[in-house]
Design a protein that fits this description.
This protein is α+β, with helices and mostly antiparallel strands. The protein folds into three domains: 17-93, no CATH class; 105-199, Butyryl-CoA Dehydrogenase, subunit A, domain 2, CATH 2.40.110; 203-348, Butyryl-CoA Dehydrogenase, subunit A, domain 3. Helix content is 54%, strand content 13%. It is built from twelve helices and seven strands. The protein has helices spanning 17-24, 27-47, 60-73, 75-93, 201-204, 207-236, 240-269, 278-304, 307-311, 313-325, 331-343, 345-348; strands spanning 105-108, 117-122, 125-132, 143-150, 153-160, 166-168, 186-195. Strands 1, 2, 3, 4, 5, 6 and 7 form a seven-stranded mixed sheet that branches. 43% of the residues are buried. Mean pLDDT is 92; it is low at 1-22.
């Protein structure tokens, strides 16, 4: 994947980097900082300084590389950037409303157990009520694509985020890892909504699988950030055990990079999934990347000990962020689905 960089703010002069970050970090401050950077990132997209090409248009590898680069700098920012980029791809694929250049979009489609959103027809339009959990960018997004249950099934809707009709629930995002992603529950009260696509279109479209690999590209970027600490340790102090951990990680991440590149090429070759392989590809790639990230977290911790986790706030945040973010992979549930698809492909279709 081609190298891509995204500018980051340097700590104030005169203070060590870890001290500057430590003084500034609280979950609320992290949310505010990430929101500001998200706004600048969307501005960079509007000017063409940064680009997330749509998947399946011949430049999917560039899309994955750009997401990876943002994630290597700041995984919480990448969560918002990926949601925005995914929303634009969904709107294009399902012929939704045209987004404005300054709009900041999220995709709020998680449906864990508990209260959810209901959609009711009101005149020619729709109205949403209820609770949407895991709403990343709740305080910074101007618009969102949200899933809700209607009388005829699950649908996707475009909404404008406008309090008090869309109100983040205080205290519902307690995470330290991914604190900056601002992912609380949001209470919807009579929110006007525009249907995007048909019933179940969000999950059945080919782009759903392509988007899942985009998330994995963010995980990969987060793993690269965690590995920086190990690479610095190995460069500064020759030690065979440290070198062995770094060598193993380098091998794993090299494989991840190759698999992401292959997936991007396959998506560009068959963007509408005529061959029917999109789900299998997504399950394989996401499982491989999640497994590599898990090993990165373990090996970097074993090689560097408690020191960086206790004294380097940037590394501690990178580890905490990646630990939370890769839980978007559903572990054995996804592996079981992968195994069933491999063993009984006709039944799984």
């Amino acid at each position: 994947m081609p190298e891509t960089t995204y500018p980051t703010a340097a700590p104030p002069r005169g203070r060590p980097k870890h001290e500057a970050a430590a003084e500034e970090f609280t979950p609320r401050a992290a949310r505010r900082e990430t929101a500001q950077r998200f706004s600048r990132l969307v501005g960079s997209l509007a000017t063409g300084e940064l680009e997330f090409p749509l998947p399946g248009t011949g430049r999917t590898a560039e899309r994955f590389a750009a997401l990876c680069a943002v994630a290597e700098q700041d995984l919480s920012l990448a969560r918002l950037a990926e949601g925005h980029a995914d929303a634009l791809a969904v709107l294009a694929e399902l012929a939704g409303p045209a987004p404005g250049p300054a709009d900041r979009w999220g995709v709020w489609a998680a449906e864990p157990p508990g209260e959810g959103l209901t959609a009711t027809r009101v005149g020619e339009g729709w109205e949403l009520n209820g609770l949407k959990q895991y709403s990343s960018g709740a305080h910074s997004c101007t618009h969102a694509l949200v899933t809700a249950t209607a009388e005829d099934g699950r649908r996707l809707f475009a909404v404008r985020i406008s309090p008090p009709a869309c109100e983040p629930v205080d205290g519902s995002w307690q995470a330290i890892g991914m604190a900056g992603s601002d992912t609380p529950d949001v209470r919807f009260t009579a929110v006007p909504a525009t249907a995007v696509g048909d019933v179940e279109a969000y999950l059945t479209r080919p782009g759903f699988q392509h988007g899942g690999i985009g998330v994995a590209a963010c995980w990969y970027g987060g793993a690269r950030a965690v590995v920086r600490t190990l690479r610095e340790a190995a460069a500064g102090r020759p030690d065979p055990h440290t070198d062995a951990h770094l060598g193993h990680i380098d091998m794993r991440l090299h494989a991840v990079e190759a698999v992401l590149a292959q997936a991007a090429a396959e998506i560009d070759q068959d963007p509408i999934d005529l061959g029917g392989g999109a789900r299998l590809r997504s399950l394989r790639v996401r499982a491989l990347v999640e497994d590599a990230c898990t090993e990165v977290l373990t090996r970097v911790g074993r090689a560097t000990g408690a020191g960086p986790l206790c004294h380097d706030v940037r590394h501690a945040r990178n580890v905490a962020d990646l630990t939370v973010y890769i839980r978007q992979h559903h572990a054995e549930r996804n592996l079981a689905e992968l195994g069933a698809l491999v063993a009984r492909p006709n039944e799984a279709r």
